[in-house]
Amino acid sequence: MEYHHEILIVDDRLENLKLLSSFLLKEGYRVRSALDGETALLSIKAKHPDLILLDIKMDGMDGFEVCHHLKEDPQTAMIPIIFISARDDTEAKVRAFREGGVDYITKPFASEEVVARVRTHLQLNDYQHNLEKRIDEGVRKIKLLNEELELTQDEMIRTLGALMEKRDDETGQHVVRVAEFSRRLAQLVGLDTETTRLIYKATPLHDAGKVAIPDNILNKKGPLTPEEWEIMKTHAVKGYEIFKDSTRPVLKMAAIIAKEHHERWDGSGYPDGLKGEEISMAGRIVHIADVFDALSHKRVYKEAWSLDKVKAFMVENSGKMFDPTLTRLFLDHYDDFVAIRERFQN
Q: Which CATH number fits domain 6-128: 3.30.450.20, 3.40.50.2300, 3.40.50.300, 3.40.50.970?
């Protein structure tokens, strides 16, 4: 017969230990014994049994005290305890259950009763442990699935943003760089982790509204006419309209960024002419990131500027185009943004 469970019997009478052991050994259980409460606690500390048969009246520490000690310790609190006692009064039974016992067997006991109750509580305990294990496993699988879904969502957002940008940027890497710049600037200004995460994830969609701009305007090599420029500016509102009704935090953030990343600190931007802190922090951050990347890379309508020229432009336009606090942080950590730019080149 295989031994699957180990039971600790605690009783100060040797004949009781022997009798109970004989019942349980015949059923294939492993059995340990202790003649007093102190020894029992030491034995349990050394190795946790699957179930404890615990006498109440013993010299020194009685069964109630032993049970109390075990239930106070998170490491042993879940071990099922069956009290065994010659006391058949209601007071003893009530206290036994109050202390945390799962059952109560009155002496003298019959082998069938002891075996049946032991088997029942071991099965219940196994079921509980298996249930907890299955719940933990289920939670782990759900967490992994959520992580996979989030990664898939992130990949779809980046891919969609890149596809949109490829209409006027050969590689689509612009959206990757602007997202990285925006995350770094959000960290520098001290935004909380969740807001920084949302800005980073939503930024690749900042120019989503360009899908509504005709190719002849989007890819025009020369200067735009006033009429063409008015059409080009509509991409901010068009992008906002794509995402404005979403309940997803990332897409709600994308709507804000799409609409506000061309607003200027002095109020001269578009589409709403917002000024200063009327512009969301996300919009202000992405504006700086977007301009830095656009100026430092070649476009159909311009050659790439040198990094020194870009820096000088940022200095000149602090407090005009750009939030001065953000601009100062950007310039103070300029090498960080140059390093990101180099890491994510086409």
A: 3.40.50.2300
Phi, psi of 322 (to 5 degrees): -115, 150
Percentage above 70 pLDDT, the chain: 91
Mean of pLDDT over the chain? 89
Q: How far is the C-alpha of 321 from the C-alpha of 317, rounded, in Å?
A: 5
Q: Which of 339, 342, 338, 317 lies closest to 328 in space, CA to CA? A: 317
Token pair listed for 283: 């919009």
Distance CA 13, CA 21 (A): 12
Helix axes 249-260, 235-243, angle to 10 degrees: 170
Indicate the pTM of the whole model. Answer: 0.58
Tokens of 234: 């509509």
Confidence of residue 136 (pLDDT cuts 50, 70, 90): confident
Residues 6+ apart with CB under 8 A from 249: 198
Q: What angle do CA 225, 231, 235 make, to 5 degrees?
A: 135
Q: Which secondary structure element, helix H or strand E, spans residue 8, and what is its range?
A: strand 6-10
How far is the C-alpha of 191 from the C-alpha of 342, rounded, in Å? 25
Going from N- to C-terminal start, the domains of the chain cover 6-128, 166-343
Measured between alpha carbons, how far is residue 182 from residues 19, 44, 117, 193 in Å? 75, 56, 65, 13
Q: What is the CATH number of domain 166-343?
A: 1.10.3210.10
Exposure pattern of 185-224 as b/e (b: 16+ CB <10 Å)?
Answer: bbbbbebeeeebbbbbbbbbbbbbbbeebeeebbebeeee
Nearest-5° Cα angle at 285, 181 to 297: 45
